[in-house]
Amino acid sequence: MGRAGNTHASVAWHRDPHVFFQAIGRGRIAPERRVTLRRGAGAVKVGLSIGGGVATMEQLEPRELRNDGFTSVFIACYEDEMRWHAQTAADFSRACQGAGLEVYVVPLGYGRVTDPDASTESLYVSEHPHHCQVDSRGRKVPKACPNNPAFLEWFSSNMRTLAWLLECRGFLWDEPTMYGARGVWACRCEWCQRLFYGEQQRQMPLELDSDVARFRRNSLLMFLLAAAAAVQAVDRRLASVVMPTSLQSGRDAGLGSDTLKPLAQSAAVDMLSVYVPWQSAGRDMEVALRSTVEEANAAVRAERKPLLIWIGGSPHPRDKLLEALKVARNAGVEQMVIAGHQTLTASSAYERFRPELARTIAQVR
Ligand SMILES: [Zn+2]
């Protein structure tokens, strides 16, 4: 998300903290609505996403996170940082594992096929414009093409290196998308045209028809298979977790929140991850959370794959974090991740909020 044409803030790593800072400085804060925990509901394991790169890793104390009740961390590893600071990430990852936290690596940048935030730099994209996706107007977009063999080789090799360096339980592929905005779509590069012709025995049309839609979706699924194979070649136990983009449809993005079923059925997906963007979508938290959980469960149930639900979080009551944790438990969510290290643990109100959050995490687990 956050790609051209979308003005909303990216949820997972850069949820707009200024909204919270503005609000917290002013006057009284209304108490959260009380959600009563349903008896007999299952336990929720709560994870934390850590964006912000190596600077953040150097500030966080994994043992404190564990003491707060978190059981897992999702660490953003940026392409342009990993060139020079991979050791910092490796040390942090080891410290997290040592503290009893499950670690998932979230590679960001790396050609920007997985692309939750358009502002994430990718040196690969700037140095290899000829490996980038070509849109339906013939223009290159700043996103590598998942069907480009040279890119695929580079990507796989980089993921193998990350998997070697960082002790972890798995990798999360964050919002893999084909470019699509305002009626313009990608990719019509020579590789995609060639592959499409090979499959369909006709030239790739300029309109995004159903064959093209299927081609784009399959291109991403094949890319995810390659990504999973790369890290599992290093350690076959590494989980491949896929988070489809939540704010674009599968038709625009190739994969979206309306294509959970093919994702769940894919061998590239060991665990399906779904974000609930109730704040940016202007929805009621409880309704959005419950309906998302229901849809996602319907997609994974037959495949018997675990589900991970993400929710944006900050200490501000407007984000209803404590309430959301209880709603999740009542809805039978087993694994939940709070998105937004910047908005939560890095916020000035976190220390005051922390005991209450830890109490709630203890209540739901
Ligand atoms: Zn292409």
Indicate the topology.
Elements: H1 11-14, H2 17-24, E1 45-50, H3 53-59, H4 62-67, E2 72-78, H5 79-98, E3 102-108, H6 123-127, E4 132-134, E5 140-144, H7 149-165, E6 170-174, E7 180-181, E8 184-185, H8 190-200, H9 210-234, E9 239-243, H10 250-253, H11 260-265, E10 271-276, H12 285-301, E11 307-312, H13 321-330, E12 335-339, H14 350-364
Parallel strand pairs: 1-2, 1-12, 2-3, 3-6, 6-9, 9-10, 10-11, 11-12
Antiparallel strand pairs: 4-5, 7-8
Helix pairs in contact: 3-5, 7-9, 13-14
The site of zinc ion has 7 residues, from helix 8.
Structure description:
With 365 residues, the protein is of the alpha/beta class. It has a single domain (11-118, 149-178, 225-364), classed as TIM Barrel (Alpha-Beta Barrel), CATH 3.20.20.60. The protein contains 14 helices and 12 strands. It has an 8-stranded parallel barrel, surrounded by 6 helices. The protein has a two-stranded antiparallel sheet with strand order 4-5. Helix 3 runs parallel beside helix 5, helix 7 packs parallel to helix 9 and helix 13 runs parallel beside helix 14 (350-364). The two termini are 31 Å apart. The model is unreliable at 1-30 (pLDDT under 50).
